[in-house]
Amino acid sequence: MISQSRNSEKEKELLSAALELFVAYGFHGTPTSKIALQAGVANGTLFHYFKTKDELVLALYVDIKQKMSTYLEEHVLPETTLAGKFRAIFTNSMQWALANKTSFQFLQQFQTSPYLSRISPEETLGQVKDHLMLIQLAVDEGFFKPKPPELILTMVMGHIFGLFQYLCSSDFTNDEQNKVIEQGFEMLMAMLK
Amino acid sequence: MISQSRNSEKEKELLSAALELFVAYGFHGTPTSKIALQAGVANGTLFHYFKTKDELVLALYVDIKQKMSTYLEEHVLPETTLAGKFRAIFTNSMQWALANKTSFQFLQQFQTSPYLSRISPEETLGQVKDHLMLIQLAVDEGFFKPKPPELILTMVMGHIFGLFQYLCSSDFTNDEQNKVIEQGFEMLMAMLK
DNA sequence: TTCTTGATTGACTAATCACTCTACAAATGT
DNA sequence: ACATTTGTAGAGTGATTAGTCAATCAAGAA
Predict the structure, then answer these.
(1) Measuring CA to CA, which residue among B159, B154, B150 is closest to residue B183?
(2) Distance B28 CA to C18 C1' (A)
(3) H or E element: which one contains B1?
(4) Is the confidence at residue A3, as pLDDT, over 90?
């Protein structure tokens, strides 16, 4: 219905404005008034959609996490082989991060901030469970070295963060970017196999 | 002199209190009044040592960076071989991070925050110049794969961050920790050689 | 039409914050 | 001894903030 789409629109505007401002000025460094202003709504409207500022921060985190997960699922599910799945997870994570730099920066910022503790351990676990299972499978089949899956996962994520920072630090053409991602994946595999 | 040592003491107290509170509640989430309280000094005293809150944040960053650098230099300089130097850099970075978790967490938080832009590029470059030169040397000698040193450096740092998070996520004995660090180094070398 | 419900507004408030200011104490220099 | 600088305190201030509230507005239901 029309009214609902209006609702979502303003909510989306608020989330989008919050994302930009949070990355630029930090969570506490961004007043709700500025968020409302940039979203083009009144002060009070923000609190109609989000009871508190904290709730807005958490909602933004969940929203971004979900968008990235959806993107990854779409691109990984079609892959049939283990190697194909890992390549898809890695390259598409990088592609998404580079295509959504602000969102990815927000994730980094959030995950190293005290806000992270507001996310329940179950929810955190749920987000990585699938990946852990896939890694376990790869270990069982001798595709990866026999290491704890959690160790492998954190290393892969560290790898992705590092590569992201490298690709953001200077200007690359799309071709160069893809080449670096490709090489980064090969190096990662050299480490894990 | 006595007065100077008193000065340093209060300044250190303030930096130490700020560190704990920043990691627990974030930069803007920590009022200067609470910092002064925890440091055991009056409100105004904080502003005698640091003109503004921002200056305190930056001073804390510089202080921690310098402590880590000093620690690394001490342990890396004695090494004579390339392999020895890299192993020393890696393992001692991990050791320092685990022995100074809060400090290391602060570095992570700071480096993913908008505050990072307050640090001049020259200063940032100065901090990594030595490492970049060492990597370049290793590439020239065929010790590492022929990749841009910046790429190798960000990957190593991503590796360290990942390993740090893994070792913080659950309880390990010292022996287990050292084993993981050792293995982590071997894997890193497998990737870079 | 009339009623109801939810969206929207922006002025308002109580609390909090970074920072100042004045006064005083302690150390240092001469 | 005296003067000067430096450290310390904590009440005070003006600005800012998250969140509230009473008042409209829009739109569908009866």
Answers:
(1) B159
(2) 11
(3) none
(4) no
Instruction: Compute the average pLDDT of residues A91-118.
Output: 96
The CA radius of gyration of chain B, in Å to the nearest whole number, is 19
**Chain A nearest C-alpha distance from B116 (Å):** 11
CB contact (8 A) between residue B158 and residue A161: yes
Q: What is the CA angle A152-B69-B98, rounded to 5?
A: 40
Q: Which nucleotides of D are covered by protein (CB under 7 A)?
A: 6-12, 16-22, 27-28
CB A51 under 7 Å to nucleic chain D: yes
In order of their start, the domains of chain B are 1-50 (1.10.10.60), 60-192 (1.10.357.10)
- Decide: CB of A172 under 7 A of nucleic strand D: no
Report, as ranges of residue numbers, the positions in chain B whose pLDDT lies below 50: 1-6
**Residue A9: what pLDDT?**
86
Scanning chain B, the segments in alpha helix (DSSP H) are 2-25, 32-39, 43-49, 53-76, 82-99, 101-111, 121-140, 149-169, 174-192
